[in-house]
Hints:
Structural class: mainly alpha
Number of helices: 11
Oligomer: single chain
Number of strands: 0
Amino acid sequence: MRVPIGIIISLGVILTVGTLPVRAQVSDSQVAALVEALRRAAPQTGGTDDGFYSDWQVMPDNIPRWSKACIGRELSPTEFEASPDLARSVLTCVMRDVMRDEYNASGNDEMLAVRRSASWWMRGDPSQYNSPEIAAYIQKVVSAYQEQQGAAAATTPSSPPAAQAPQSSEFDRYMAAGYEATQQGDYATALLYFQRALDERPNNPYAQRAIQNVEQYRTNTSGEASGNSQPNSQPNSQ
Length: 238
């Protein structure tokens, strides 16, 4: 039986979208609304052992590749499903690139970009957004997206776009993940998260200081290891 979530099947799309010469700009709120809409619209098979993972019903083969590209380490499907926040962060990273591409393809038509993104998610082919076979699913995504955007507009104070930029939820998620990795002694992963946070908010002093601290921790750890008679020991390993 064909499950209507061939979705997440695009085996190379995400790794190549960055080569486009011109990229449309999409806001954090638009990407967040799309990711939440995909979660709400995800077809449910009715079983817990259906071979798909998380509320987004992600195919397992995509999880290690996407997590490696987005957070610098491969997550197993079980890890992905066990952490909804981490799963959302990875999918936000994935869908940001997809939505930018579909904005370009749609001539900056927001709702057409959403429809094309939903088609990519379901079929791996954004051009099928008018297919009768997935029409109900596409409309469900669109409705959920509009609901999310409407709720965000109702709760956001009126102010210039530049004043809203620092409220990026992605920055907060990357910083929190970086601090957690630091506490676990996983400095390489922590550094990656903090660098991604700095990408979200260039010149942010907290992200810069966190990067400096982690680099110092790595230096100190390396020095301790070099003075130990067991050069392969990892004092911070779990």
